[in-house]
Amino acid sequence: MTATRPPDAPLKIVIVGSVAAGTSAAAKARRNTETARITVYERDHDISYSGCGLPYFVGGEVADIDDLTPRDPAWFKARYDVDVRTGHEVVAVDTAARTVTVRDLATGRTFVDTYDELVLATGVRAVVPPIPGAGSTGVFSVRTPTDARAIRAWIEDSESRGRPVRHAVVVGAGYIGLEMTEQLTARGLAVTVVEAADHTMPRMDADMSARVDAEVRRHVRERGGDLLLSTKVTGITADDGGVTGVGVAREQAAEHLDAELVIVSVGVRPHVNLAEQAGVELGPTGAIAVDRRMRTNVEHVWAVGDVAESFHVITGEPVWVPLGSTANKMGRIAGDAMTGGPLEHRGILGTSIVRVFDLGVAQTGFTETQARAAGYDVEVLHNIKPDRPEYLGGTPLVIKAVADRATGRLLGAQAIGASGADKRIDVLATAITYGADVADLFHLDLAYSPTYATTKDPVHYTGMALTNAVHGQAPLVTPAELDRRRSDGERIQVVDVRSAKDRARSSVPDSVHIPLAELRQRAGELDPALPTLTYCNKGVTGNAGQNVLRNLGFTDVANLSGGNQGYQQHRQHTPRATPETPVPETSTPRKPSALFVCVHNAGRSQMAAGFLRALSGGAVEVRSAGSMPADQINPVAVEAMLEVGIDIRDETPKILTDDAVEASDAVITMGCGDACPFYPGKNYQDWELDDPAGQGIEAIRPIRDEIERRVRGLLAELGVQPVA
Ligand SMILES: Cc1cc2nc3c(=O)[nH]c(=O)nc-3n(C[C@H](O)[C@H](O)[C@H](O)COP(=O)(O)OP(=O)(O)OC[C@H]3O[C@@H](n4cnc5c(N)ncnc54)[C@H](O)[C@@H]3O)c2cc1C
């Protein structure tokens, strides 16, 4: 029998969960009506807190946890006349009788309460994978203020426990894992991030998160940590004093990482046990299915926040992206709807942003991968522009935008940069929400002052290039598409329209070099009947070259999205090819070979070559080269190597050639980013070492020692025993 409310009785609202969604629902319901009786049950002690701020309390950027937990039950009572009962868990729901069974966790007593409207705002639980040792002391998830207090205390009390926390392992490189990595690194810990996927930020496209990988690697290595991708945790070791280390497996080899602290952040799942018990339906994502008013399938039961499913603004399909921004909105909508208000949910784009050391990393709508999986024929642009003029400190902002070729609709964007990613992603999210065509972006009247933006904003440029591609005659080809088409056997004539100096740094393999200024005169060297691809460093000059060729009668001319920079980034992320031809057993074993590359080939690469020659005892073929080699070796690097008994005076600087790369099994760049090449099938690594140029011996010694450490690691990878 279903309970009914007498007409004059006050509406009785019961809410389960009191963080973002539950308290929003309570506050909105109260704003709409003074007569309702509103009770919130919360099994924890903290309420209405900023979960998003927890990493910054652990790191010390937020000094006091009270700043993240500004409200308590007394505040809610005084401000909203809402009863918040902390330490009270709802253990059962009877939807026919409209009752909840509640356990007072302090006394163990259970009691039954009635409701007219019930709101499930039970949030998520952290996933703890079944790793041996995951329950050890010193292993934490980051969900609640209790977790954050415990992590901070574990670090701060560690000296007095006699085992200072110096090394941390963060398992999972999603946004919470990376926020924790940043904050623990800021505390001076050597943090190693272990991620099973082959890139950080698994919700982003790999070519974009490659930039995040590099940023994380650079910062954690400065403190002795590392980023280990495609790596799985096999177990956590501990003794009476707590956790001691983490076992990992990568490339079929087992490794042990020292750790006195382990953070597990491999994801969350919706807290749906109460809902399931009450007969509330879940959607295809595993979260509670709700309509636009936040109603579940069961009358008078609502679900909001992380526990509830949402729907995608573009497709209307169910999606689950648990974020505080959405949780607050959903709570407000339910609070309004159950008290007679008009609010309805309009869906989400999964818009999010995270600070990762010096980068803002943001996304909205579909990534390229998601858009293709959803069946769209996509146009993809990588737009690299300063966020404001360089004369006022502008830094590169990379926007990857995805549009539907069939309709011109903007489907999604990702933005990464030291500044300005937040503003651009919000503008793009707004445009997508209102169904913008890519051509609409150019017409947006955006604010400009050189202190904040460029006259044509990066959003305008994104729109212009996508419009030319989708509606005009300037199609784009992504680096991945180029490689795919070439490996399918298609003949594409690739034209590098950059200067000789730029080309000397790195280039797209098998490209013809015709600088833009010579293109009109030398176009006869090209075959107008072949599919043609122009490229420059980032895309703008490539587009100019594309226009020249098109005007000269070339019918199939595309421009490389993101230019050479995008291409090199993509190549760094292309999985290494596995050798398919086994070496015949009778052949003489070939020496492994390694090539060290840096722009000037005048210090780091020579030191690395010197160490590898000496430590391998001649068992490895060693080369070093530079894209713009200097005239002589850095004499201070020579001096630093002589201190350890290695003479590198004969390592004269050499020009980098394709032959040298082709002849080497391992290609190691020293920290020159995309100034250096990447070739698939090579064991490619970027060691991201500091540059010794112009430095004194004191500064070069640690670089030298780091190089020796890396060379020893390389020897192990090449299977060569170092000589004494
Ligand atoms: C470290 C961290 C960083 C984050 N950063 C961001 C960010 O930058 N941006 C962003 O948008 N989002 C961020 N989030 C996500 C955001 O915090 C959540 O989306 C938001 O807290 C969800 O609110 P909620 O009310 O739906 O659920 P929750 O916050 O999970 O709250 C649910 C509450 O329900 C209680 N509960 C569950 N079952 C019962 C029961 N049976 N009886 C009584 N009580 C119960 C739980 O104890 C819990 O307190 C972050 C989260 C974390 C952990």
Describe how the helices and strands are arranged.
Elements: E1 12-16, H1 20-32, E2 37-42, H2 54-59, H3 73-80, E3 82-86, E4 88-94, E5 99-104, E6 110-114, E7 117-120, E8 124-126, E9 139-140, H4 145-156, H5 158-161, E10 167-171, H6 175-186, E11 190-194, H7 206-222, E12 226-228, E13 231-239, E14 242-250, E15 253-258, E16 261-264, E17 268-270, H8 273-277, E18 301-303, E19 310-311, E20 318-319, H9 324-337, E21 352-356, E22 359-365, H10 368-373, E23 378-386, E24 396-404, E25 410-417, H11 421-433, H12 438-442, H13 458-470, E26 476-477, H14 479-487, E27 493-496, H15 500-505, E28 511-513, H16 516-522, E29 532-535, H17 540-551, E30 557-560, H18 563-573, E31 593-597, H19 604-616, E32 621-625, H20 635-643, H21 658-662, E33 666-669, E34 683-686, H22 697-718
Parallel strand pairs: 1-2, 1-7, 2-3, 7-18, 9-16, 10-11, 10-16, 11-12, 26-30, 27-28, 27-29, 29-30, 31-32, 31-33, 33-34
Antiparallel strand pairs: 4-5, 5-6, 8-17, 13-14, 14-15, 19-20, 21-22, 22-25, 23-24, 24-25
Helix pairs in contact: 1-9, 7-18, 19-22, 20-22
Bound molecules: flavin-adenine dinucleotide.
Helix content: 25-40%
Low-confidence stretches: 576-588
Helical segment count: 22
- CATH architecture assignment name of the largest domain: 3-Layer(bba) Sandwich
CATH topology of the largest domain: FAD/NAD(P)-binding domain
Protein name: NADPH-dependent 2,4-dienoyl-CoA reductase/sulfur reductase-like enzyme/protein-tyrosine-phosphatase/rhodanese-related sulfurtransferase
Pfam families: LMWPc, Pyr_redox_2, Pyr_redox_dim, Rhodanese
Keywords: FAD, Flavoprotein, Oxidoreductase, Redox-active center
InterPro entries: FAD-bd_OxRdtase (IPR050260), FAD/NAD-bd_sf (IPR036188), FAD/NAD-binding_dom (IPR023753), FAD/NAD-linked_Rdtase_dimer_sf (IPR016156), Ptyr_pPase (IPR023485), Ptyr_pPase_sf (IPR036196), Pyr_nucl-diS_OxRdtase_dimer (IPR004099), Rhodanese-like_dom (IPR001763)
